[in-house]
Amino acid sequence: AQSVAQPEDQVNVAEGNPLTVKCTYSVSGNPYLFWYVQYPNRGLQFLLKYITGDNLVKGSYGFEAEFNKSQTSFHLKKPSALVSDSALYFCAVRDLGSQGNLIFGKGTKLSVKP
Amino acid sequence: EAGVAQSPRYKIIEKRQSVAFWCNPISGHATLYWYQQILGQGPKLLIQFQNNGVVDDSQLPKDRFSAERLKGVDSTLKIQPAKLEDSAVYLCASSLWDSGNTIYFGEGSWLTVV
Q: Which secondary structure element, helix H or strand E, spans residue B39, and what is its range?
């Protein structure tokens, strides 16, 4: 069965510093991987996805993610964090064996302090 | 392009009462999903439609939850009777029919059962 793990419940970063939110996955076959962000009392907003091709994927709001097949990881990164990046971040994998719905990690709360 | 529309945004009901949530997907999206997100967890699929047919409802508690997508566009999710543990955010999402396509989410319907 497909699954994703987000090992950190919370990540704290100072504004202007680089940030990394970790995600590892377990799939059979080629993974389709996604990152979403959720602000308080809002739905999920799509940030970026990896389907195939370049291992470094660029997305919205200056975020990028690096796909690493040997480490089965898909970490979310940003070179310089903003206070407005503070939110809940979800990694997800597309379950190709179950009509393609998304399987989510438990989420990582990112807190960026001024 | 209009996003996924959901209503109502917030609902408070007493246990054993009923509630219904409505969703209008992005125009042209054949696939529609309902997810349940309990506080502190990632979203979990309740039901997936392809046009007006059910693709996956294996995780839908069918003794109290029902969903329909008449005419292959709008969808309604109903809970009757509600239990305290149904307190959650109900997220509607839609996508084109292809596993590489992005799933887009609405703002969610926040249910509190008291």
A: none
